[in-house]
Amino acid sequence: MDPKEDQIGKVLMSWEANEYFHHEKGNDWYWWVGLAALVLLVLAIYQGSFLFGVLVLVGWFTVVLYAVRPPRTLKFSLAERGVIVEKTLYPWQTLKSFWIFYNPPLHRDLSLESKKMFVPFIKVPLGKMEPQKVREIVIKFLPEVEQEESLIDNLSHLARF
After folding, report:
1. What phi and psi, each to the nearest 5 degrees, are found at residue 56?
2. Is Transmembrane a UniProt keyword of this protein (predicted)?
3. Same domain assignment for residues 64 and 91
4. Which of 48, 52, 100, 113 could make an SS bond with 44 (beta carbons 3.0 to 4.6 A apart)?
């Protein structure tokens, strides 16, 4: 979906940021991931679960692939009609609320709660953008409701992923 200017209205603020915070991973990190995958694979063999074994291998490959891939730099905008991530417009009407997670340097995100069931939260990295300036604009369109980090977010921070 490529939002045109007449669809988005006036752009109020734009910035660029990495799609996620990239942790440098040493050899120890890869050894621990490999060991965890090996333990799960042995469990799959012990249980005779071929599907679980394949799932472990695919999961291990995906984690390692994303660990070595550097984050892309994306463009974000706040406009009169919604939030734009690259070329995707999230209209204000489809969003319930927002919260800004601010714990530099790891964590500087605008979290938008969506009304859609399959995409409940949209995380927008703030990069070097000042959170207070973003808040001043977003609060005109959405209520600010404190959110808790999901279990997956907490585990990924703990695993330095």
Report:
1. -60, -45
2. yes
3. no
4. 52
Residue 50 and residue 104 in one domain: no
When divided into structural domains, the chain yields a total of 2
Residues composing the chain: 161
Q: Which of 73, 75, 100 is nearest to 3 (CA)?
A: 75
**Strands in 1-133 per DSSP E:** 11-18, 73-79, 82-85, 88-91, 95-103, 107-114, 121-125
pLDDT of residue 1: 47
Range of the domain at 33: 27-68
Closest CA to 18 of 103, 75, 83, 68: 75
Is 33 found in the same domain as 14?
A: no
Amino acid at 41: L
pLDDT band at 24 (very low <50, low <70, confident <90, very high): confident
Strands 82-85 and 73-79 turn out to be antiparallel
**pLDDT, the chain, mean:** 87
**CB atoms < 10 A from the CB of 99, how many?**
20
CB of 11 closer than 8 Å to CB of 79? yes
Residues 36, 106, single domain; the answer is no
